[in-house]
Amino acid sequence: MLRRKMILIALSLVLAAGLSFLQYQYFKKMTESDKKIEVVAAASDIKAGEKIDSKLGIKVIPQSAYVKDMYLVSEKPAGYAKVDIPAGSYILKSLVSQEKVPVLEEGMRRVTINVNLTSSLSGKIRPGDVVDVGWVPKDEGKEAAKVIAEKVQIYDVVNKSGEDIKKADKNNQYDKESLIPAAVTLIVTPEQAVAVKEYEAKGSLFLIGY
After folding, report:
1. Of the four listed, 24, 56, 149, 190, which is most buried by Cβ atoms within 10 Å?
2. Cut 0.85: pTM above it
């Protein structure tokens, strides 16, 4: 009987030690997961297309709440907001572009025109660029070439396959044809959109860079 009691006591001590160890490991992990880190957040409202650089703040969060799309303070993010980011919201990498972001403001419209390498400034255009739109008539004897829209922003640039030029540059870097613009979408007023398409039917359009 005594031997059995000693064995039970020993087993109890082993189980108690095991439980204590497991509790220690659990609370250790909880403590580590609650370690605080600093991430980047919007200090004030940031509008789509606006530079984020001067509107950044810091939020302290548990490490367990961190996701890879967040910016750590040490990463020092910069660029343009793809969408409106309310004050206090986390600045996520998926919401930031390193290039200018074209924004379709209230009352504005999008219109697409055909272009080629020559009429698109040798293809050196990107969304966000500001250009003038020039026009050359089919019959130069009746009308003179002129500028039909000034300081309009480029919304999108695609190749003949309808692929975004920037994406084609990454995915088809050895296919030069994929880098030649075939169509450009512009941000214009409704009146400008109608005029642009009317002039396109009567001649050739080309972009004038700044």
Report:
1. 149
2. no
